[in-house]
Amino acid sequence: MEFYLTALILGLCLSAMSLGIFISMKIFKIPDITTDGSYTLGAVITAILLTAHWNASAIIPMVLIAGAMAGTLTGLIHTRLKIDALLAGILVMTGLYSINLTILGRSNVPLLDVQTIFSSLHLFTASIYNDATIALLFILIITFLVGYILRTDFGIAMRATGNSASMTRALGINNNKMKIVGLAIANSLTALSGYLVAQYQNFTDINMGIGIVITGLGSVLIGEALIKWWNIRSIMSQLTVVVCGSILFQLVLAFTLSIGIDPNMLKLVTASFVLVIVIIPRLKKHD
Amino acid sequence: MIELQNISKVFNKGKVNEVIALNDISLTINKEDFVVLVGANGSGKTTLLNIIAGAEMSTNGKILITNTDVTRLPEYKRSQWIARVFQNPLSGTADELSILDNFRLAAIRTTKKKLRLGINEAFKKRVREQIASLGMGLENKLEQAMGTLSGGQRQALTLLMSVMDNSQILLLDEPTAALDPRSASLILETADNLIKQYNLTAVLITHNLKEAQQYGNRLIQMNEGKIRRDLQNAEKKSLQLQEMFEWFN
Lengths: 287, 249
Prior knowledge:
The structure holds two protein chains of two kinds.
Chain A: H1 2-27, H2 34-51, H3 56-79, H4 85-104, E1 108-110, H5 127-151, H6 153-163, H7 165-170, H8 175-201, E2 203-205, H9 212-229, H10 235-258, H11 266-286
Antiparallel strand pairs in A: 1-2
Chain B: E1 2-11, E2 19-29, E3 34-39, H1 45-53, E4 60-65, E5 68-69, H2 75-78, E6 82-85, H3 99-107, H4 121-132, H5 151-161, E7 169-173, H6 181-197, E8 201-205, H7 209-214, E9 218-223, E10 226-232, H8 233-237, H9 241-247
Parallel strand pairs in B: 3-8, 3-9, 6-7, 7-8
Antiparallel strand pairs in B: 1-2, 1-4, 4-5, 9-10
């Protein structure tokens, strides 16, 4: 039970990133690989500031700004230098590896004797329930805020930009500016996942972001399948389903481990699982 | 209202596939003029419309809108004056967004897109009343995705969206080209009514000479990037369909 609860908490922590990928991939139709770098960036900043005895809540704005800067850079390279979004993301992600390593100073920083966001609640005797409550509250607030933004006039303009560029230009929207802002928000959310996961697992590792985009992508694809299945129109419900997708993804991985698959094969299992999620709707279409 | 001064547009300049789409065009479109543009394929009609809208930048020349030099202004900035209806019904609306979301964006065309919830009951009522005027029964489907509607319905809604904010110019690029005759007739009638009701200055591109004869107060024929004929008011009214057919022979 505790094993699956851990997977659920991890799913909640990673769901901020899934919301970010939902914005970049589903709203702007941009495959943003910056994710791998900005996720680690969030964790790196968290580790450095926590070990410098910063309050865990005070770190949040710093993590959001750092993630936004990474996304803005990708957006600027893509829109101003007219470089393909995929390549722009790869370039920033690659550059971020060196930046993250420079900030962190070494490849791994443990966070054992510091006050994390998860040590701020003592509602239950078993700490895992406190962790779950913190993660749930955090993600509820984030989902509500993202949902609110996407329902505002600015948010509608954002959603339209990825949908019909000719229409938005004719309606007075600067598409390039919108893409930059969208990527900034997406990577802020991704960095926030790094912030949560680093504190939950009590360490930051320079390689923790490698391939994390696949996890986010898988969560969004699960969410998208459910959105289509249930024909969900409300943006707030769509975001909630993406969060559920993130949790479901982690639960499936936990189940895979529980049946005895070698943990070294976890990345392969993750990639295969995402492949299956992508393939199933296509197989149905051929029937 | 719109003043084009010595406008030229050359595609692939200096290359083997160089095309002169517009050749030194000067044209003044007065306030509340309804100009119909006709001409063979490749005569430069759409390029001219794109240059007015800012979707294309002219190679040479100057464009003034209400005496403001807009020659280098991008399309999204010119939208403070200009509304567009595209040839493809899918281009003027966002199919994943609801009808209401599409209309909200149209209603804030000339203003800043702020972090505020703009869709309230008053706004819904306004959109419902506007859409009801079409008589298509779409006024009770405001939450429906735009992508679920037919091309004709989307084109009609795009027209209504063009008058949701303070636009003064309406550019219609073959808005009926992809529609069946019944939808096409409804779209042009709606456009004509809106142009009159909101005192818009309009430019319509069409290949249908009957439509060209029926609508507008001014008819311009283009050929090889130049204006060949420019007929106004009484001169346009007296024009016979047969005479127009002969322009293309």
